[in-house]
Predict the 3D structure of the following.
Amino acid sequence: MAAPKHPRPCSVADTLALVGEKYSLLVLREVCLGNGRFDQLVRNIGAPRDILATRLRRLVDAGILTKRVYSERPQRFEYRATPSGLELEPVLMTLMAWGDRHLRPDGDRPMVIGHSCGKDLAPVVTCAACGDPVRHEDLTAHPQAPGWTVTGPEAT
């Protein structure tokens, strides 16, 4: 069988093309925390200014962030998450929880996110239909891209 001309069509790959670059999710983290000014982003992320400017431009162009002037002289901007950007916040919370569990076994968490119920957030992915937590053993993939199966491209 010949190798496919293109990799598997995948929404994960498409999403990573937008937010998978170094610093992009950290920008979103800071914006969700309310730190949307360029100097705050530079300080809190540690990204070089030119790279940060490029990431911000891409996130604005993708509709994940908006940019608005907060000072005319000198002209300065702040960034805020759009509704689609805010939809990525649970991804950040899940990544943070994974890091807390697997990279900080001593329990020394650098940030805790509180929920409106008064408790610390413990994110869980659930099925929208039944409400059950998602577990690997309960999932079944159904490829929708023409010519692709779970194991790869269909034999021709």
Observations:
- The helical segments are 11-19, 24-32, 38-45, 49-61, 83-86, 89-103.
- The first helix runs from residue 11 to 19.
